[in-house]
Amino acid sequence: MKAAASPLAVLALLALLAGAAGAAAQSSDDDTALPPVPKPRFTVVDGDTVKFGPQVVRLFGIDAPERSQTCDDGQWRAGTLARKALEEFIAGRPVTCRLVDPDRKTRPPVAQCFAGEDDLQEKMVSAGWAWALPVNGKDPYGVDERDAALRKVGIHAHKCMPPAEWRAMVRREALKREQGG
Questions:
Q1: pLDDT in tens, 115-144
Q2: pLDDT tens across 48-75, in order?
Q3: How confident is the model at residue 103 (pLDDT cuts 50, 70, 90)?
Q4: Residue 125 burial (CB < 10 Å; 0-12/13-18/19+)?
Q5: Which of 7-11, 143-147, 170-174 has the lowest mean pLDDT?
Q6: What's the rounded Cα separation, in Å, for the pair 34 and 129?
Q7: CA-closest candidate to residue 74, choices 165, 164, 158
Q8: CA–CA separation, 128 and 151 (whole Å)
Q9: Rounded CA gap, 133 and 116, in Å?
Q10: Whole-angstrom Cα distance, residue 145 to residue 168?
Q11: How many angstroms separate the CA atoms of 129 and 158, rounded?
Q12: Residue 165 CA to chain centroid, in angstroms?
């Protein structure tokens, strides 16, 4: 079941603002209505993260290369290409997301997102722009990842490190620099 709007926090805020606007318009003495609440601006942050206005949302069940992550010893810009691929899969269509994991204090909410009827997570993994992440013992995009690896597309055609390993490596290197090594 797909939601008709963005993540819960944004949806709740928009509903609250719309309700307030409607109440104000009904109670106004001069019959003037407030202008409609604008839809939040949608942007692609990277290959597995989008924003609806200020609300950051992580895509469910996938991990794409980080924005600055490269592969093939720095010769292939996987992070930049993954972001571009997600933008192309959306192709200007409206995006809807179904909240899967509520907002935690240190992390953005996780949602399964669609452009039209297209499952954006499946598209990213199938095209080799993201790795599948098992969630609660299930691996909804594992078959798609294995197929992409067999076809050697995207990250599977290059010497790419999974993003979690890459982030750990970057942290180790930064710590070494801080310690003078």
A1: 999 999 999 999 999 999 998 889 999 999
A2: 999 999 999 999 999 999 999 999 989 9
A3: low
A4: buried
A5: 7-11
A6: 44
A7: 158
A8: 9
A9: 23
A10: 22
A11: 11
A12: 19
Q: Look up residue 1 and give its two tokens.
A: 């079941």
Rounded CA-CA distance 46/64 in Å is 8
Structure tokens at 116: 């039209």
* Rounded Cα gap, residues 100 and 95, in angstroms: 15
Q: Are 71 and 145 in contact (CB under 8 A)?
A: no
DSSP per-residue letters across 95-140 = EEEEEEE---SSS--EEEEEETTEEHHHHHHHTTSSEE--BTTB-T
**What is the dihedral angle through the alpha carbons of 66, 56, 93, 112, rounded to the nearest 10 degrees?**
80
At residue 138, φ and ψ (nearest 5 deg) are: -110, 150
**Three-class SS state of 160:** coil
Token pair 């993954």: residue: 82
Structure tokens at 134: 């098992």
| Residue 8 contacts residue 16 (beta carbons within 8 Å) | no
